[in-house]
Amino acid sequence: MSKFYITTPIYYINDRPHIGHAYATIAADMLARYHRQAGESVFFATGTDENSTKTVQAAKKVGQDTRAYTDQMAATWEETWKQLEISQDRFIRTTEPAHQKAVYDLIKKIEATGDIYKGTYVGLYCTGCEEFKREAELEAGKCPLHKTVPEKVEEENYFFKLSKYQKQLLDYIEKNPTFIQPESRRNEITQFIKGGLEDLSVSRTKKEWGIAWPGDDSQTIYVWIDALINYLAATGYPGAKSTDWWPADLHLIGKDIIKFHCVYWPAMLMSAGLPLPKTIFAHGFFTVDGQKISKSLGNAVDPVALAGQYGIDALRYYLLREIPFGSDGEFSHSRFRKVYEADLANELGNAVQRVAAMVLKYQEGAIGEVQTAPHDVGPVHTAIKEFRLDRALEEIWVHVKGVNQYIEEEKPWELAKTDREQLSDVLASAVGDLLHIAELIMPFMPTTARKIAETFANGTVNKEVGILFPKFDEPAS
Length: 477
Known about the structure:
Layout: E1 3-7, E2 11-12, H1 19-37, E3 41-49, H2 53-61, H3 66-83, E4 90-93, H4 97-112, E5 116-126, E6 131-133, E7 151-160, H5 166-175, E8 180-181, H6 183-194, E9 200-201, E10 203-205, E11 212-213, E12 216-221, H7 223-228, H8 230-233, E13 250-254, H9 258-272, E14 280-283, E15 286-288, E16 291-292, H10 303-310, H11 312-322, E17 329-331, H12 333-363, H13 378-385, H14 389-410, H15 412-418, H16 420-441, H17 446-455
Parallel strand pairs: 1-3, 1-13, 2-3, 3-4, 8-14, 13-14, 15-17
Antiparallel strand pairs: 5-6, 5-7, 7-9, 10-12, 11-12, 15-16
Helix pairs in contact: 4-9, 5-6, 6-9, 10-11, 11-14, 12-14, 12-16, 13-14, 14-16, 15-16, 16-17
């Protein structure tokens, strides 16, 4: 049996999950479900990044002990994914002993190659990014992402010989064109590496929170080095069975963290003699009603609340259909409402409701022998394999619209008066098409797929399933 290991980024716990976090996790969940449906053995990991300075600052802000705060917030994140029915196999926390064990093992492997040394670092440190910035990366002296002036830091640290792997990284990227996707991100990373790699500071002078450097309590492991190793730790590394899953088939990440994942991480693995992940795919930034998600703006949409209003599958559909995967995306409450009513209530929901109602009315709920005409679903599978998730749903919706068009053309209400045999064939064919659509949408909208299957299970219509996507009383604005 083929295997598929997929990861999301692990998320900072300085705040609650918002819709941008849900977007990445839902996309990963959709791909995990797709590979399970194809009969593959799947391992899906997500989790929380807890060893950062931002965690300490957030705990102090609410007057809590850091450990108590991390336990509380990690539970909030895990519960959020449970409420959104995310099907992860492993929720990893970077404060776990199992994670620390993996971190120590990998660092010792890198040290054994001679790629770690001690030196003095002077640089500009952005706490928001948890990284040192080059002057060229700043805009008007500020971090372009957080709009803050980085702090000048000078301290003795451990360094990783990142510069040693410049040519090896470029050669690998060139020989493996699907390693970094989409192409725009691959080009960005290639140019960054060609600009020259400097050795990387991988520790900080002892902090009040984090993982101590192995054998040297005066230093704390740089949070980004610690965090990246979660992908190995989730598999049980350094245990022997970790090779059952490593290397990962797919890391899903945001475009703001590609340097860590596409430069630092593969170089660390090269140094340790471990295989690299097969593909790293970076999705774009997320805005809400035209503005970047921000606590100060108060526009951080709660995905659980939204799912409670519209349904989890409606949220999944909107995020995966409306936002081209890999590009920047926009969430709009008004657009969500319109998509819900047009695509889900009026097209898919209406098709299922109409067909079920006619089978009940004209055939007392008996479907008969389900007939399914051959459909070309190759474009759907091709789009998913190319991470064009919006395109895959667009292709599926061709079939959804086809059912409604078929009903309008065949006019079952007239056949009920003139040709009962043809009526039975038409309705059985429509049911077959809807069951086929249910299979196609299962990774995208698992609850809806299950409800469609239950509606037409065992050769009869189950009217207890009810309406898939209830309409709202007031029209969309």
